[in-house]
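One example copied in:
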Amino acid sequence: MPTNPVSAYLGPLARLFALVAGYAVLGLSLLITTEVFLRKMFNVSLQGSAEFGGYTLATLAAFGFAYTWLDRSHTRVEILLERLPRGVRRVLDLISVLSITAMAVFMAWRGWAAMADSVAYGSLSGTPLMTPLWQPQAVWVLGLIFFALVAAATAVHALVLFVTGAPGLAEAYGAKSLGEELKEHAAQLNERGTGQ
């Protein structure tokens, strides 16, 4: 099977961002646990845990989009796709890549516009912390821009594969078949069993 150059070059960075976002969720969980404990035991509240939770989840989603896209884990309904002729599947896979790219670019553009408005108007959060909104939005927008760049790179690669008729479009950007998912899970179980 041909190697996907987009995954080879951008995949490690996407994975790193996904891991950092995952640790941020872990930190958020610890913050919320501490908040609940302090409220219950000492009737004291940490200000801002809900606010930071919203920022964390928005950033997690933005950075997670690229990793999920490269892993081919975005939700798709493939019940009919597997039964279609190969040529039709190639067209649908290309449309899928171009659609997600258009959506990623649109989200990055609108995210940038929202952050620019926050800077222009000096917008603050409606909480006691009065956080300047451009600060968490800047991290969120970076995630959206990274997703847009990854999606654009996949669109170029998918177009090249489609136009040249080269194999690998479905393997790189198509929906995972049930067989592929079972092989992945079996490989993960095998790694755990051997302790690697």
